Amino acid sequence: MLLETYQHRSFIKQSGNILTTLRSRETPFELGWNTEIRAYEWLRQQYQQHRVRLNRQHALIWAWPQSTISYPIVPHTDRRVAIVHLWLDVPDELVLLMNFEAWAIPLMGARFMEDDNIPIERDWEKLFDEAWLIQHEYAASDDWLDHQAVFPYVDRAWIKRIKYLRCYR
């Protein structure tokens, strides 16, 4: 699957052919919300159920089928951060796709359905049911522009293009 991701420049400077990110960088904005942390942990569990087992020390890599954002989504604290924009061809069996807009529901700790009899984690599984999301207006369409993906690592062989950037905020 052709995907794009933004990473710290240090990501591409790792030795070896397998590139990973530390778990400490898993939550992009480090807001410290308990609901945010719970959603990321739930997503890791979902990834392992639907794809492969994850290394506990490594974060999931976030990517998009096309550039749907006007600025890089990269966790950082420095005003000037050197980053890389990577174009990748990731094996489909490692990619877990989800709706970009609908991800906000688990991230906020909210529910898709108003049924408190269903555990919230079961409710969040609607994130992967594209037809249900569209029918209930949580997603505009099944267009690729509305998707994002996660996968466990980058193999250098998957890199098709690299663009070096500096992010000013």
Describe the overall structure.
The protein has 169 residues and is of the alpha+beta class. The mean pLDDT is 86. 22% of the residues lie in helices and 25% in strands. The two termini are 31 Å apart.
If you compute it from the alpha carbons, what radius of gyration comes out, rounded to the nearest whole angstrom? 16 Å
Shape field: globular
Biggest pleated sheet: 3 strands, antiparallel
User: Segments where pLDDT lies below 50 for 5+ residues?
Assistant: none
Tell me the span between the first and last alpha carbons: 31 Å
Overall helicity: 10-25%
Spatial order of strands in the largest sheet: 1-4-8
Main features:
globular; alpha+beta; single chain; 169 residues; three-stranded antiparallel beta sheet; 5 helices
What is the gist of this entry?
The protein is α+β, with helices and mostly antiparallel strands and 169 residues long.
Protein topology:
Elements: E1 2-8, H1 9-12, E2 18-19, H2 34-50, E3 61-63, E4 80-89, E5 96-99, H3 104-108, H4 120-124, H5 130-135, E6 147-151, E7 154-155, E8 159-168
Antiparallel strand pairs: 1-4, 2-7, 3-6, 4-8, 5-6
